[in-house]
Amino acid sequence: MNEMRPVNGKDLSTTTDEWWRGAVIYQIYPRSFRDTNADGIGDLRGIADGLDYVASLGVDGIWISPFFTSPMKDFGYDVSDYCGIDPSFGDFDDFDRIIDKAHKLGLKVIIDQVYSHTSDEHDWFAASRKDRSNAKADWYVWADAKPDGSPPSNWQSVFGGSAWQWDGPRKQYYLHNFLASQPDLNVHNPEVQDALLEVTKFWLDRGVDGFRIDALNFAMHDPEFRDNPPSHAPMDAVTRPFDMQIKQFNQSHEDIPLFIERIRQTIDQYPGRFTVAEVGGPDPLSEMKAFTADGKRLDSAYNFDFLYAPKLTAPAVRRSLMQWPGEAGEGWPSWAFSNHDAPRAVTRWVSGDASHGQIARLSMLLLMALRGNPIIYQGEELGLPQGHVAFEDLQDPEAITNWPHTLGRDGARTPMPWEAKAPQAGFSNANRTWLKLDQTHAELAIDCQREDPSSMASYTRDLLAQRQALTAVVSGDLELLETPENVLAFIRTDDAGRVLCAFNLSDNPCDWAPPAEFAHAKTVANQRQVGSPDPINATMEGWSGYWAMTTGQ
User: Fold this and answer.
1) Per annotation, catalytic residue among 94, 214, 299, 305
2) Is residue 278 annotated as part of the catalytic site, yes or no?
3) 499-538: b or e for each residue (b if 16 or more CB lie within 10 Å)?
4) Is-catalytic flag, 243?
């Protein structure tokens, strides 16, 4: 494929450097990005058509959520053919067009890999469930019932209820940490690992630049099927039985890093590729560190520190940053405030007199300042709030099960607004889309914001350009500063200079004097605009922030 210098000014044509270190990744949820065949579902052609817009933001790469062959009971995370493209999204010609166009625009392409489970419609599972002696009998997690007929253990599914499903043909239970239609692979089995690594090579040969690995800490279970202990979580914090257990035995097995080393050995045959793991759970740090240790496992990992946080607070951000000090052998962190699984951050974090627009800009300013890889979820750069989805229009099985106690995932998956005055805001020409468009989103459509210098999209574009010019913010060290409780401040440093990043994450003004070296510094960005060289104000207003540089830099 022909490569060219990208529009965002960062040369990504080389395949041998660590292009990903500090790269900004834009997540695309295909069903909701853009529909080109009027069936109400976003597709691969829509992604290709939208790449010019994505590249214009100044991001370094895209992450495309699953588009593989699937019955879509969990909207693509239930894969029935790892090496196939679901017809609702298009075909391989459409995918190859994405790879080619993205690379010409200087964008890397990362795709999901789901190694922990498949759909129950996968050929592997169809073979496995036939009997207990076939060639794939041990490719999934099967166990006999207890003498009283109850499941092998007390493990609970993420989506509610037992994680075990009785199967008549096998006269056994199979494990499903998610939907009953998503049986867990037995990744302890070397043959299963081999098959998954062949999938990895298939997509690498197809030209992808890396993978986001879904639910990786669910990939292996305790072979003894021991019961999980209770979490003793207070009932007001519980929305499902899953929350009532410490997930000691159904996930996070100590052998997962050994499988990750096999993944790394495979990916290292293709220089310049990037891997990032999703690591969920209430205490994921040790797994994140293990999954990314010593340069022989994955490059990066992110968790749910911010994805489900009901508030944005300085102490919470400080704790997260302290966990990644940059020690020898440590992996590289990634950060996401919103994604397809979590209610949009701007809705969760709006507070007091702060507007949605103010919180949207401040959170973007913060996300871009963190040491690691920022991941922008589609629409985050527009300031989209959580979409309203009526109960009768819900598609997400988790949202339906837990209604009305959670915001659910559908509100973060509503169609992307492209043209304010077009039908379906330019997302689709269909009369009905898979999820209804939130009409308030049309007012924030791309065409309204693209040329407006005061828009959230323009702010994002200007901020990414400013960040790209400040190598210390892209990949430099981070030094936390002593501050009042509600203020977060740190200095990003590399050989080219030092940048002060400060944030008041509260409703109230706060006095804070920066270090002496920044006493006469000028801001290069704040929560209102980018590029205005203003002096630092010793009193930070509520929900405000800035990046600043000394005049000598």
Assistant:
1) 214
2) yes
3) bbbbbbbbeeebebebeeebeebbbbbbbbbbeeeeebee
4) no
